[in-house]
Amino acid sequence: MEFKTGHRFRFLLLGLIGLTVLIAGFANWRAQAAALPQVDAKAAVLLDPATGKVLFAKNPDTAMAPASTTKIMTAILAIERGGLSQTIRVSPNAVGIDGSSMALASGERLRMEDLLYGLMLVSGNDAAVAIADAIAGSEAEFARLMTAKARKIGLTNTNYKNPNGLPALNHYSTARDLAKLTAYAMRNSIFARIVATKVKTIPGSKPGETVTLYNHNKLLWRYPYTTGVKTGYTLTAGGCLVAAAKKDGATLISVVLKSNAIYDDSIKLFDYGFKQKSGSRS
């Protein structure tokens, strides 16, 4: 009888211990789930570029219209081709493009570097076409080079049809691919310098004239750790923002696509990510 009672007691004790562990694990899971940022974006990714680890993901591999975040690829491709000081003659094809622009005139001459500032700060759709025509002779050929570059750096769910991200059939990317692309691009010091610039004054089309460009990426003002990168918007794509931030030596890249709150979403992701990074170091 004593043996049976002791046997039952041991089983009861083990059961209570197991239940306690289960409850504690469930509570921890609920706490972690509650701590995850709630974002408006249809798709989002938070990437640690140093490790390649994805810290947050929401529909990361859903193909979506990337809008002007397309220009990240346009810029890095142009930078890697070199010749930033070369003078580019604006092609007629680049004039009068819909959406945001530098208001370029046909035949106007600018340095490639100044076009890149216009591309990435004021999101010049005309600048994108001028760059594409200068490098590849046409938008279509430049888009082919963009897609080839995407494959080369491991972007498997991205396809380009133009250099500016205006709506086009089979022009798409994913939050994961955009994060990977940005991690790659931000390793280039010229790219990183351009996208971190809040305000840039460049020569105008007339002698002695200057033009001041203000970065459309308001996160550079709203979140003190921001180091770039690119906004985007079309009716199809909705609000898009690819951003990078650095805090206490740690760098993170966030992507939000089709969001009504691109800045709030991005700040939530960064705050979450930096808290995770801080916790892992303590």
TrEMBL record:
The keyword Glycoprotein does not apply. The active site is at residues 68, 71, 123. It comes from Hydrogenispora ethanolica. Gene3D superfamilies: DD-peptidase/beta-lactamase superfamily. Belongs to the peptidase S11 family. Residues 32-259 form the Peptidase S11 D-alanyl-D-alanine carboxypeptidase A N-terminal domain. One of its GO terms (biological process) is peptidoglycan biosynthetic process. GO terms for molecular function: serine-type D-Ala-D-Ala carboxypeptidase activity. Substrate binds at residue 230. The keyword tRNA processing does not apply. Keywords: Carboxypeptidase, Cell shape, Cell wall biogenesis/degradation, Hydrolase, Peptidoglycan synthesis, Protease, Signal. This is D-alanyl-D-alanine carboxypeptidase-like protein. Pfam families: Peptidase_S11.
